[in-house]
Design goal:
By secondary structure, the chain is of the alpha+beta class. Helix content is 56%, strand content 13%. It has 3 domains: 15-162; 179-253, SH3 type barrels, CATH 2.30.30; 255-342, 2-Layer Sandwich (Alpha-Beta Plaits). It is built from 10 helices and 7 strands. α3 (55-87) runs antiparallel to α4 and α4 (95-128) packs antiparallel against α5.
Length: 369
């Protein structure tokens, strides 16, 4: 076979198989676009993060992976259509509906990523500026938006497969009673979560406890079904949200002050020094820099106890921090001891006094056996 015959054969072959080149070119273009996206995406994000707008860098960051997947499935869909036209493969007839569903999934994926990135941007920027932000509300709105995207995407997917959305909604109305009975606890927890988000008795990071249940710890997460609480011994406690509809919840994290309430006893022999001790203790508390003098402050002789004369102190610290509170309380108690001793008195301890009648001789009495 000479050169001219070989050239003619190649032209005939490639003339009949041009669709292979078309598929090859589509794949090359997809690869090039994917390369450009990966190469310049990071540079664009760095520039957008320098702006004061919350959503621009969140938009590009959320679009990176979905856009890359969209490029490749679009290329595969076009390639499959070309192959189907030339090979008549029946199986490739399902490419079109699958491509539509794929695009729908990518759009939902992008929207969910955008909501998450936007949520993170708001929280991080506010925290960097030192501004107060209600993280529980932000989380609730973000979760609601994500659920809405998933529900709408599911309904559109059903419509794409030829199912009537109105029929599905009608079925939901007819079967609502059965679903309600089957998922009664799930719905109760869902609406319990809604009430937490609306009433906001506590937020993520708050210390909560319930006098009705053995619940106490720091709130880590408020979900639509469960609230996660980390107890003080670092164990996770998962509480169904419906529980909070039927119990009292105390939120010590929102206290304005911490209270110091203590009773101190001195000896009966130091009765004459009680008034001066009370006066000095009250003066000390009023001059203490960590005591909130705008709140109730009481120091009074309170009780004739069996072994002591008791007075009590009732006051509030400015701080609500647990560790700092105990440091202040320790300092105050040590100051009270110093005041008692400086007045020549002593703190009482349990004692017993035995009174013997005058004239009773106990020197020669033997103990009874």
């Amino acid at each position: 076979m000479n050169f001219f015959e070989l050239t003619k054969l190649n032209k005939n072959f490639f003339g009949e198989q041009t669709w292979i080149f078309e598929v090859f070119i589509i794949i090359i273009i997809a690869g090039f676009l994917s390369f450009i996206l990966k190469r310049y995406h990071h540079k664009v994000i760095l520039k957008l993060k320098k702006t004061k707008i919350f959503w621009d860098d969140a938009l590009f960051d959320a679009a990176k992976k979905p856009l890359s997947v969209l490029i490749w499935i679009t290329a595969l869909a076009f390639s499959a259509n070309i192959v189907k036209e030339h090979t008549k493969l029946i199986i490739l007839g399902a490419i079109s509906p699958l491509y539509q569903i794929g695009v729908l999934i990518i759009i939902c994926w992008f929207l969910i990523r955008f909501i998450t990135c936007f949520e993170n941007n708001i929280i991080s920027v506010k925290q960097a500026k030192g501004e107060e932000i209600d993280q529980t509300t932000v989380d609730a709105i973000a979760q609601l938006l994500r659920i809405s995207v998933i529900i709408i995407g599911f309904l559109v997917a059903l419509q794409s497969f030829g199912y009537s959305i109105s029929g599905v909604l009608a079925f939901g109305g007819i079967g609502g009673i059965a679903v309600g009975f089957a998922a009664r606890d799930l719905l109760a927890n869902f609406f319990g979560g809604m009430m937490i988000y609306m009433d906001r008795p506590f937020n993520v990071g708050d210390w909560v406890r319930s006098p009705d249940k053995e619940i106490e710890g720091t709130v880590e997460k408020i979900g639509w079904r469960l609230t996660t609480i980390r107890t003080f011994d670092k164990r996770p406690l998962y509480v169904p949200n419906s529980i909070f509809n039927n119990i009292s919840v105390e939120n010590p994290s929102r206290m304005s002050n911490r209270r110091i309430k203590e009773t101190i006893g001195i000896r009966y022999d130091d009765l004459s020094k009680m008034e001066k001790i009370i006066s000095d203790v009250k003066k000390m508390l009023k001059q203490h820099t960590d005591i909130d003098t705008t709140k109730t402050l009481i120091v009074n002789f309170n009780e004739f106890a069996p072994s002591s004369l008791d007075f009590f102190i009732y006051t509030f610290t400015k701080t609500t921090d647990w560790v700092r509170y105990h440091e202040i309380k320790q300092d105050i108690l040590l100051n009270i001891i110093n005041i008692i001793e400086s007045n020549g008195a002593e703190c009482a301890f349990p004692t017993s006094t035995l009174h013997i009648s005058p004239g009773t001789d106990i020197s020669n009495q033997e103990p009874k056996r």
